[in-house]
Write a structure and sequence with these properties.
Radius of gyration: 24 Å
CATH class of the largest domain: Alpha Beta
Shape: elongated
Number of strands: 18
Strand content: 15-25%
CATH topology of the largest domain: Aminopeptidase
CATH superfamily of the largest domain: Zn peptidases
Largest sheet: 8 strands, mixed
Strand order of the largest sheet: 1-2-6-3-7-16-8-15
Distance between the termini: 35 Å
């Protein structure tokens, strides 16, 4: 019999596992209540402390060992097994995309909950805490160790700083699950890479008529932007660009002394991401040269600052962690679906060669990253149940083997 199938047949027959699965269903209302509490705590990147403090208190209260907050701001604690086995990190991200002054009040209407950040990733955090309760309440006996926690800086300018810091200081971790989004069937096992830049251009400026012939910083930005939009992107692997903002100048009658651009480059392929990155830098240099030739009465300078670097993450559909998640999904009589690449905390460990997935926290959701974000708790317990089944398959129990391979600490 296939090892994966055998392990999951054993897990489904274990009374303690059955009780934990039932516990998660019964804990569903409490999980939703905690989700609302978390969503209403403002937590933009670099200002997640109030929300992580809440998670810290809950992890301590639930009896995890060695609960701590690291220098980056991540909080986590351990659930230790009784036998030697792999170490798995399971987390949701603590930050949301919304600024500190955004109203995060959650409202309810006809079975749907509305609020900035109600799903992303307040649902993931609440699901993670429910899973911890299932482990500690039912005293599940495992091999190895599970580290449960909340990472900071997953969104936008956070640039995965939390998960990057965690894996820099925990080289003995064998695998990772990020709880994000909601689907109880999709398995995100690939990571979309991205480079994000802020480009600043400076020049002498001058009167638009009297100093004509002086180069314009805004002209350079416009030329570079036009060149980038001409780039022939690939559909497979999907590659994209976006000029998020262009700012500069002071008046229609003044040659712009400065200009600033923000740019986002993304791809599901390493080579393609590097290619469009090279093109961007060439386009900027060419735009500077063209404007300097057109208007030679002054010198232009520019700086390119990388403000985001998310690596491409690739792993096989036959990877043990993927197969385990598929079996965990089937154990709930659901049909697993391998999702397309996404940009999540899992990007970084996958890039490092550490098996990693992003799994949904259950329910239905929409309008993410907008003030109209909504969440509907339809069969929402299925998310935590699927994650719990995945965890048990990976780390193993006193009756089942561990399906997550051990890796040597570096």
């Amino acid at each position: 019999m296939d090892t994966y199938k055998q392990v999951y047949e054993q897990l489904k027959q274990m009374k303690a596992v059955e009780e934990a699965i039932t516990f998660l269903a019964n804990d569903d209302t409490r999980t939703l209540e905690e989700q609302i509490v978390l969503a209403e705590i403002p937590a933009p990147p670099f200002k997640e402390e109030k929300r992580t403090d809440y998670i810290y208190e809950q992890l301590e209260h639930l009896g995890l060992v060695d609960v701590q907050k690291d220098e980056e701001g991540n909080v986590f604690g351990a659930y230790e097994g009784t036998e030697d086995g792999p170490t798995l990190f399971v987390s949701a991200h603590a930050d949301s995309v919304f600024a500190e002054d955004v109203d995060t009040t959650v409202t309810h209407k006809e079975g749907t909950y509305y609020g900035a950040g109600i799903t992303d990733d307040a649902r993931g955090l609440a699901a993670m805490l429910s899973i911890v309760r299932a482990f500690t309440t039912n005293k599940l006996s495992i091999k190895g160790k599970i580290i449960f926690g909340a990472t900071v800086g997953e969104e936008g300018v956070g640039d995965l700083r939390g998960v990057k810091a965690f894996f820099e200081h925990h080289t003995d971790v064998d695998g990772f699950i990020s709880i994000d989004a909601v689907s109880p069937t999709e398995i995100i096992y690939l990571g979309t890479g991205s480079y994000r830049y802020e480009v600043t251009i400076s020049g002498p400026g001058g009167h638009s008529f009297g100093a004509f012939g002086t180069p314009s910083a805004l002209h350079v930005a416009a030329k570079a932007a036009a060149k980038l939009t001409e780039y022939d992107v690939t559909d497979v692997p999907k590659t994209t660009f976006n000029i998020g903002s262009i700012q500069g100048g002071t008046s229609p009658t003044a040659i712009a002394e400065f200009a600033r651009m923000t740019i986002d480059l993304r791809s599901n392929g390493n080579l393609q991401l590097q290619a469009i990155d090279d093109y961007l830098h060439q386009a900027l240099a060419t735009a500077i040269n063209e404007e300097s030739t057109r208007a030679p009465l002054g010198k232009l300078t520019y700086t390119v600052t990388k403000i985001g670097d998310r690596p491409v993450g690739t792993q096989s559909t036959d990877a043990p962690i993927v197969r385990v998640a598929e079996m965990a999904t089937k154990s709930l009589d659901l049909t697993p679906k391998l999702a397309g690449p996404a940009s999540t905390d899992a990007n970084h460990p996958i890039h490092l060669g550490i098996p990693a997935l992003t799994l949904g926290a259950g329910g239905e959701a929409g309008a993410a990253h907008t003030l109209n974000e909504w969440y509907r708790p339809t069969n929402s317990y299925l998310g935590p149940q699927r994650v719990l089944y995945t965890i048990l398959g990976l780390v193993g129990t006193h009756e089942t083997e561990s399906l997550l391979p051990r890796r040597l600490a570096k």
